[in-house]
Amino acid sequence: MKKHLEYTDAKSNKFWEIELKGKSINICYGRIGIENPAKQSKSFSSSDLAKKYYEKKLREKINKGYQ
Predict the structure, then answer these.
(1) Model confidence pLDDT, tens digit, residues 4-63
(2) What is the edge-to-edge ordering of all strands in the sheet holding 38-43?
(3) How far is 14 from 26, CA to CA, in rounded Å?
(4) Measuring CA to CA, how many Å separate 54 from each of 28, 36, 64?
(5) Structural contact between residues 54 and 46, judged by C-beta atoms closer than 8 angstroms
(6) Which runs of consecutive H residues, i.e. helices, occur in 1-67?
(7) CA–CA separation, 33 vs 49, rounded Å?
(8) What is 2-55's CATH superfamily?
(9) What pLDDT does 53 receive?
(10) How far apart are CA 35 and CA 18, in angstroms?
(11) The pTM is what?
């Protein structure tokens, strides 16, 4: 499961992407158009914990204004 969000205003033009693969989460973020965006990986002991983390982070970004 993969989700791509973007945030644009007068000062910002950035993206945030999260991907759920079984027990692991991959997050990629940065300004739109840069060559090497930041990446993070996180592993969990169960797929349920990974899914809860995925949903929590996605909800946080949407509440901050990402679409």
Answers:
(1) 999 999 888 999 999 999 999 999 999 998 999 999 999 999 999 999 999 999 999 999
(2) 2-8, 13-21, 24-31, 38-43
(3) 17
(4) 13, 23, 16
(5) no
(6) 47-63
(7) 32
(8) WGR domain (2.20.140.10)
(9) 96
(10) 18
(11) 0.88
